[in-house]
Fold this sequence. Notes:
Blueprint: H1 7-25, H2 27-40, H3 46-52, H4 59-84, E1 93-94, H5 97-109, E2 118-122, H6 129-136, E3 146-152, H7 167-188, E4 192-198, E5 204-209, E6 214-218, E7 220-221, E8 227-228, E9 234-237, H8 244-273
Parallel strand pairs: 2-3, 3-4
Antiparallel strand pairs: 1-9, 2-5, 5-6, 6-9, 7-8
Amino acid sequence: MSNGITPRSGRLVAFTDVVEQFLRGGQAWIAILAAxxxxxxxxxxxxxxxEKLGIENSQHIRTLGSGILLLTIVLELHxxxxxxxxxxxxxxxxxxxxxxxxxxxERARTISDxxxxxxxxxxxxxxxxxxxxxxxxxxxxxxxxSIRMATLAPDxxxxxxxxxxxxxxxxxxxxxxxxxxxxxEGKTRGQAFEVVEYDLIPAVHGFRLGxxxxxxxxxxxxSDGRLGKPGFTYDYIACTDVSEGAAASRKLFANWFDRALxxxxxxxxxxxxxxxxxxxxxxx
Length: 284
């Protein structure tokens, strides 16, 4: 599973996308055809023509056409309203990361389907994510969850000069804590952990739940010419949001997370070539 969305939730998102495309592109033509049909039925002689074709009561056609026309109008009004209102499920923007974590925990608690109890974390060094998640994962409703956490590789070579020098060391400490938790508390609770170590600029980060909910953020450049933690905020994309903007945010997160997975494999191969343990914390 490369995108963190299960086949079931993926089919749901795909279905809603198809419905949305139909509503955007098809309903106008259906309304036009229904209107033309209703107008045509007012032309003298059309009833006689329909009778020759075996349709003896054109009133049924009028009723059907009126119903279709009314339905398309209702759908159009619904779409207009949806475009003017924020997506259901909570605020769409969090300027305070702590508020975002509270929303993340609340959204996770609403997921009861085992197939959707999955969390992807695209972290920086997991400096704030892991301390909060370690507490969150001790709650009974988080039993049997699977968690993938991507973080900067402690031996990253491609980020020198782009991030603070202490970030790789900070990441190493959190990886060690995750491994300890996974082998004890996590195992007891039936949780599955995977740590992804990447060697690339940690610009995009966030959280993706198995139902499609997404919390995403992008780092800002600091005055010293490096990326830093101050000032970043989160956007929340609800799983029910099928807008073009939501699709773009999901694509952005998936693109960076998939690249982190590829980078993890590169980091592993590089360590193996040097005769080093492929996983941080692995006995030498």
